[in-house]
């Protein structure tokens, strides 16, 4: 395997790892999220489900975009979208902003 192929495998593997970690990592933070946003179970459910809903909504379309515009470009766009929305999740503005950022994380994960 060439160094470039190894780097590709490593980058792809890290991206996939982050997708699976992020699906569940919010569960650890639920008590803190509830305190910061003063919300009940319904708000927490949207924060948890938003990621999966965003990813499921566009997953098949993203595969088509990857075929059309190139897998590398699609992957880089998805990672960028994921990272930017992750930064927004860290800034606790409101539960609505947090939930929208989680949905956008899911969109990025779909790429």
Overview of the molecule:
- This protein has 4 helices and no strands.
- The protein starts with a helix and ends with a helix.
- The relative contact order is 0.16.
- 90% of the residues lie in helices and 0% in strands.
- By secondary structure, it is mainly alpha-helical.
- The chain has one domain.
- The model has no long low-confidence stretch (mean pLDDT 90).
What is shown here, in short?
Helix content is 90%, strand content 0%. With 111 residues, the protein is an all-alpha fold.
Mean pLDDT: 90
Strand percentage lies at under 5%
Structural class: mainly alpha
The percent range for helix content is: over 70%
The strand count comes to 0
Sheet with most strands: none
Query: How much is the radius of gyration in Å?
Result: 15 Å
Q: Name the shape in a single word.
A: elongated
Please report the number of helical segments: 4
- Intertermini distance: 25 Å
Uncertain runs are none
How many independent structural domains?
1
Order of helical and strand elements? HHHH
Search tags:
111 residues; mainly alpha; 4 helices; 90% helix; elongated
Task: Explain the layout of strands and helices.
Layout: H1 3-37, H2 41-69, H3 71-90, H4 95-110
Helix pairs in contact: 1-2, 2-3, 2-4, 3-4
């Amino acid at each position: 395997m060439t160094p470039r192929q190894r780097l590709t495998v490593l980058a792809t593997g890290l991206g996939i790892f982050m997708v699976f970690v992020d699906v569940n990592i919010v569960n650890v933070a639920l008590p803190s999220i509830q305190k910061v946003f003063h919300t009940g179970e319904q708000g927490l459910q949207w924060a948890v489900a938003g990621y999966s809903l965003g990813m499921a909504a566009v997953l098949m379309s993203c595969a088509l975009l990857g075929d059309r515009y190139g897998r590398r470009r699609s992957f880089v766009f998805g990672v960028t979208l994921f990272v930017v929305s992750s930064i927004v999740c860290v800034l606790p503005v409101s539960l609505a902003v947090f939930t929208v950022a989680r949905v956008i994380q899911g969109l990025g994960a779909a790429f």
